[in-house]
Amino acid sequence: MSSTAESAPTSPRPTQQSAGATLAPGAQPDLSTVPRVDFLLLALAVAGVSLSAPLISAIAAPAVAIAFWRNCIATGVLAPIALLRHRGELRAMSRRSVGLSLAAGVFLALHFAMWLPSLRLTSVATSTALCTASPLWTTLYLRLRGHRPPRLVWVGIGLAFAGVVLLTGFDLTLSSRAVLGDLLALGAGMAASGYLLLGSEVRRTVSTTAYTFVCYATTAALLLIACLLSGQSLSGGYSPTAWLQILLLTASAQFLGHSLSNRVVRTVGPSFVSTAILLETPGAALIAAVWLGQLPPVAVYPAMVMILAGLLLIIRAGQRS
Length: 321
Known about the structure:
transmembrane; about 75% helix
């Protein structure tokens, strides 16, 4: 748990990067100075999120209930660390930081509430490809705020959108159920974009542990309300295997995936993290093919390649600018 128990940065605007130092907003990292352990942590984060979608598809429990338990367990594990070792930091958080952390929790709850059901309606490969399009929505949001991205970004946006249209259009020929899953996955990606934007702002001055504790607790509370209102069972009829899978999901996706990504973004930079997370799509598709026997139709692969290539252009162009 030492990877999540991290102190808040003491200087909000460092001028250069030393080993393990926090990057200034907009600064690009010198990867040669980044501690090797951070690259290992990022690799573990990618492996954790890649396992997430196939594991969720295999768990015999309601989708939103799975999301609740995932965040509830993560909050319970973080609670003693946050309340004992970071009590002073939590009390010292500004109203703005608390508000942004709560808002990030809202967006994360929306992300889970849409993405997990989508995995029951369409394939793991399709849902993951559409959900990981969060850099696309982030770029469009920043454009609305007045930022002017370079031309290469618009090329990437066009390519990614073409892939989304092609992928969703193909599912339209299969069933309306698959299209609904596609739309939920797209919505989940939009919510993930909001979660990442808000989280990156909070993480300038707040440690990983303090931020994730507030964010995960908010997400768990909202998902609990969603389960109660929708009548989803929170424990009835779950097999021991399902509980073990939920614990594995929490360990792999929540701690290895989300928390470690929040940890290393301070040193390797958001562009590098975003590029690495794109590996979730082929990773999840491979695991689903081997474990669940989900082999996407041949027509799906060109659309997935277009989406990933477009997102990669967006990320790389943003890094250059």
